[in-house]
Amino acid sequence: MPNYSNFRQVLNDLENLIHDIEVVRQRLVRESGIPYGSQDARQVALEGLQCDIGACGNWIKALMSLKSVCQGSFGVIWEAKYRELIGTRLDSGPAEDLMLDYLRNTLPTKIHFKIENLFSNILKALSSSPLRGFWRISDAMLQQAGISTTGDEKARLAALANLRNSFHTNGMHGNDNASVDVDGTKFEFCKGTRVQCASWKHILVIVRSNISVVEQILFSTPVSNHSSEIADDFASGGREVDVGRTD
């Protein structure tokens, strides 16, 4: 767990992320007139991000609590009871690592899905031509918001996309080499090699930076001036569509 000494620090940063998103949601109400509980795609996406981050934190707490309860209640047989409760033949240490790794790898994927869907919904509302593939969608969204497609914002969006894509290939990076420094945390992606920047610290840093880019986009003039509701297909009862790679 590089740069974190314990999971309390991870939980604190997850809670801070939820708070930061809440600040954006309240700002949307004040500045853009988007009701907090509306089905507008902006509020739907931000609420979904809060739910995903909160769920990750709650599962970490549940795993930690279960282990503590077993240790306190079952004495020398605590590990056998712990393994029985979680349904595994692995020893407690590897089992716990496996479950926490699952949460760590799932969070950036869920976050990225929601950001990609949000951008697609906004672009449709701004009468942009439908696009497929995150690279094209993100470029179009940045252009609409008046943000450079070759600056830090694009690099940070791409870093999260590269993390997500690496899970399609068991942790290997398949696109061109890329590098970005986010608040002193380095993200290096080398084509054909294992991704080495997916620690808890890396993931929380890149998620926070992507939420910052989303905030810039939401309060850019073209988007913030769109006072009518932006439809979200799922929230409005549309058919759910499976999303594949971000190429």
List keywords for this structure.
globular, 4% strand, mainly alpha, 61% helix, 247 residues, 2 strands, two-stranded antiparallel ribbon
Report the average pLDDT across residues.
Answer: 90
Strand order of the largest sheet: 1-2
Question: What value does the Rg take, in angstroms?
Answer: 20 Å
The number of helices is 8
In terms of per-residue confidence, which ranges show pLDDT below 50 for 5 or more consecutive residues? Answer: 239-243
Shape: globular
Largest sheet, described in full?
A: 2 strands, antiparallel
End-to-end C-alpha gap = 30 Å
Question: Helices and strands: which structural class?
Answer: mainly alpha
The percent range for strand residues is under 5%
Query: Percent range for helical residues?
Result: 55-70%
Number of strands: 2
The total domain count is 1
Taken in chain order, the helices and strands follow as: HHHHHHEEHH
